[in-house]
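Researcher: Structure prediction, please.
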Amino acid sequence: MGPKANSVAILLSLIVLLNAVVAKSSTLPGELNPRPFLASIFTSNMVLQREMRNPVWGWTTPGSRVNVDFAGYRQSATAGKDGYWKVLLNKAPVGGPYEMVISGPTEIHLTNVKVGDVWICSGQSNMEIGINAAANSAQEAANANFPDVRVFKVKLSWGINPRSKMEDSQWSPVNPQMVWGISAVGYFFARDLYNELKIPIGLIDTDWGGTTAEAWTSSEALATMPDFKEYLQKLENERHGIHDNSYERLIDEWCNKYEPAHPDFTGTDYDDSGWKEMALPAFWQLAGLPDSPGDEWKTTRVVWFRRIVNISASAAGKDGVLHLGKIVDDDTTFVNGTKVGEGSGIKYNGLGYGPSRDYAVPGSLLHIGKNVISVRVVNSVWRGGICGKPEQMRFVLGDGDAIDLTGAWKYCQTLLTSPASSPLPKRDDSDVHATAPATLFDSMVAPIIPYGITGAVWYQGESNADRAYQYRTLLPTMIGDWRSRWGQGDFPFYMVQLANFSLWAEDPKEPKDASWAELREAQAMTAARVPNCALATAIDIGEATNIHPRNKQEVGRRLMLVALANHYGKDVVCSGPTYKSMQVQGSTIRVQFDHVNGGLQMHGDKLLGFAIAGDDRHFVWADAKIDGNSVVVAAPSISAPAAVRYAWANNPACSLFNGAGLPALPFRTDQWPGITAPKLDVAK
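Model: Predicted structure follows.
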């Protein structure tokens, strides 16, 4: 064969190879991750929505034919010019397990597929946080054995362009090992719903602590709100410049480049006798690694930690769960030299801790006697280290025993910012960063649209409390955005009303305006005005000093009651008393309530939380008493009352309930401007 023939053969081989690659994935301009042959949300163990023509989609070579075989039927599609293909499955009742085969230029075989109801759970930290921070967590995890409850955990990710692919996510049946890494509220909601309905329940868990509602809303929807005009222009500028050039990624690359070479610190035979010890949990600046003076906000470090634990014969070979609590910022964690997990906090831009680090450890890694846990921690900006609560640090073993991981760990610092190092990456000053408007929609919502769902449950608002009046428009905008893009009508959208929490030392001597009260009002307005929305309040189960109250079980149960009553048509009480009307009767005001199922009841010795005001708008605490399905409110200093408020505080006293044991929702009868209302410009 001559040179020309050789060249042609090589070229043909390259074309065949290129077509094979394109058949599996493709990439759009501005996307860092390739478009997969089958969308990432489709994996073995998934739950498909019952009685729906479920979309199945992906990308491949334009013009290619793709077949999807499921439940005895075949659906086919031809990829368009952009490589996108989609089929609609035939409607199927509750059932399974099924297999699904997707074939075309490549073939994927999925197993153990169930058909039931699929719910999205989303929001910020009170939705994201796992059962490690819930009451009775060890027992709850031990009892978490529900093979027909499956969870797809969307990994934390952000971007400035809508993504098509999610990394390293799989549908997983709930078991005692995996349950530590998913939303506690979402799990308790799905578990209780399964126990009531006895059908497969799928949960798409996509949430991120500290985030705002606008982060979960598309830029197109935010463009309808003038408040975001300036930011959206910056976002558009970024989209035409850098793509996902995030500070998190730049810091990670910088550390990997400049961290000196060293022996394998993860190995069981590594001698760490020369390392110092640090008592954990602790910020390392307070435990032996102080920053240079004046550099507390600029220092970047890489520190390795090691701890030897002894495993008994009864636990060796059995799966365990490693709980390290909060780590600032990033960690990579190993057991006996094998990576078992990693987490990130840099994405919080120095303002947060990231999720609790809870890692499943396969029993194959654990042997009798000494076992080594190694953790590489990277910190950039402010304090760093393994720094959660002591009760969060434990190694739960397969025999039911738990090893306390607090106390002395060996540590070795391998990298510290210094003038000799390459300059640190600069923080993005464009306001386009992780958790900024639209960034989470693009990376943690867009890739799962239009997967077939029943509806969504939402626990968020703490980060929007200082803009509560804006939330009256923002939350409905987000809900409408999701519904429009899913194309499945006004699917159920159920919200958790913020729990009681004291942001600061509140003065109980007299009532006053409160941003969290106004945010709760915005949530209630959304539930009342937006079709197929409803509210589950947590106003009575918060903790004054803990923004993450531990009673996640009751939050999940109340969401389940809302779903049973509003979507499934069950005869259950799902709401506490809600404000209906008021009448001024001389020096008193009579307040009427709906949802008084079983009658109004007082918890405690006195009916607390009511305040009353005259036309001067000065509220005072009121005396209140139950009279049938109403409450009569009065105060000696108010002879001509005009308005009543109840539970109108960040951390209010709550004592009014109905016969079902559900608390009255906070309310006010006035429409006077609050502290988060837009301020009128009266300057001349």
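Model: Residues 196 and 507 are 43 Å apart (CA to CA).
Researcher: Thanks, that helps.
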